[in-house]
Amino acid sequence: MNDLELRFRHRVPVRFRDIDLGGHAHHSVALMYFEEARAAYWRDVVGRPRLEDIDYILAEATVRYRQRVLYPDLLDVGVGVVRLGKKHFEMAYEVRSSSGEVLVTGRSIQVMYDYAAGRSMRMPDEMRARIQAFEGAGLEGPDADGAGAS
Which domains does the chain have, with CATH numbers? Predict the structure, then answer.
């Protein structure tokens, strides 16, 4: 994942509550760092700032722990869309310490979801265009949704 250029950056402080008995961030906290960065991306890049504007569900997430996340620190979380399907998108994440060390990397697959209808939906063209304008070309890939919702 280090070969990816994740252009969107979001700062997240390591909170005291993040730390477990081992003196480092609990393993579950990495997903919260990803989520905070993903929400900021959705707000700033996709242009959907409100909670009601989140029209996807998380289908899959992977996390790779490379170094310990320690308190106190101000993390730099890189996030970007790396693949677009008809009804889903894949994001990559890289969490760096304030000194620049890569601490955690990961990926997630989100499926576009119509909460009122209770089913997956196609990604709106306007949303796809915003993501492609920010990320550049080359995001289209095989449309095999990890959640079986193609």
Answer: 8-135 (3.10.129.10)
pLDDT one digit per residue (tens) for the chain, 150 residues: 456 789 999 999 999 999 999 999 999 999 999 999 999 999 999 999 888 888 999 999 999 999 999 999 999 999 999 999 999 999 999 999 999 999 999 999 999 999 999 999 999 999 999 999 999 978 876 554 444 444
d(CA 68, CA 48): 33
Between the CA of residue 20 and those of 27, 35, 37, 41, what are the distances in Å? Answer: 9, 20, 22, 28
d(CA 42, CA 82) in angstroms, rounded, equals 14
For the entire predicted model, the pTM comes to 0.90
